[in-house]
């Protein structure tokens, strides 16, 4: 979820700021569709709907890179690459099983 690069963003979004200083190649984030949308949709309250965020992700051309990044960095909150934290955990486990 790449619409959160504003240092003044509220928690937990501001916690993500440090991750952007990691030295990773994040050039793909400039194509992140979520940067043009409401970031709150990507961090719903517990039990809240993820539908709107996932709908945006489904249209995003960097979805694969985003998902890989979130899995690689063990991102625990929010929708990344069209998946919730639980879905990413399951996907990661399945991927490990295939390797
Ligand atoms: S896949 Fe979703 S969370 Fe990731 S950059 Fe695209 S819109 Fe944002």
From TrEMBL:
> What name does this protein carry?
Transcriptional regulator WhiB
Question: What does this protein need as cofactor?
Answer: [4Fe-4S] cluster
Mainly resides where?
Answer: cytoplasm
How does the cofactor attach, per the note? Binds 1 [4Fe-4S] cluster per subunit. Following nitrosylation of the [4Fe-4S] cluster binds 1 [4Fe-8(NO)] cluster per subunit.
Ranges where the 4Fe-4S Wbl-type domain occurs: 33-90
List the GO terms this entry assigns under cellular component, sorted alphabetically. Answer: cytoplasm
Which GO molecular function annotation, any one, does this entry have?
DNA binding
The known PTMs are summarized as: The Fe-S cluster can be nitrosylated by nitric oxide (NO). Upon Fe-S cluster removal intramolecular disulfide bonds are formed.
Q: Mind telling me which InterPro entries this protein's record contains?
A: 4FE4S_WBL, Whib
Q: Give the source species.
A: Bifidobacterium pullorum subsp. saeculare DSM 6531 = LMG 14934
Keyword check for Transmembrane helix:
no
Q: Name the Gene Ontology biological process terms.
A: cell redox homeostasis; negative regulation of DNA-templated transcription
By sequence similarity, the record places it as follows: Belongs to the WhiB family.
Q: What does this protein do?
A: Acts as a transcriptional regulator. Probably redox-responsive. The apo- but not holo-form probably binds DNA.
Q: Where in the cell is it found?
A: Cytoplasm
């Amino acid at each position: 979820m790449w619409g959160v690069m504003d240092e003044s963003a509220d928690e937990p979004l501001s916690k993500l700021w440090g991750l952007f200083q990691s030295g990773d190649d994040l050039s793909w984030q400039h194509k992140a569709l979520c940067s043009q949308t409401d970031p709150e949709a990507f961090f719903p309250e517990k039990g809240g709907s993820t539908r709107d965020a996932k709908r945006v992700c489904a249209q995003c051309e960097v979805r694969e890179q985003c998902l890989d990044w979130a899995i690689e960095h063990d991102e625990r909150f929010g929708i990344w690459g069209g998946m919730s934290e639980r879905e990413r955990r399951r996907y990661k486990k399945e991927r490990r099983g295939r390797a």
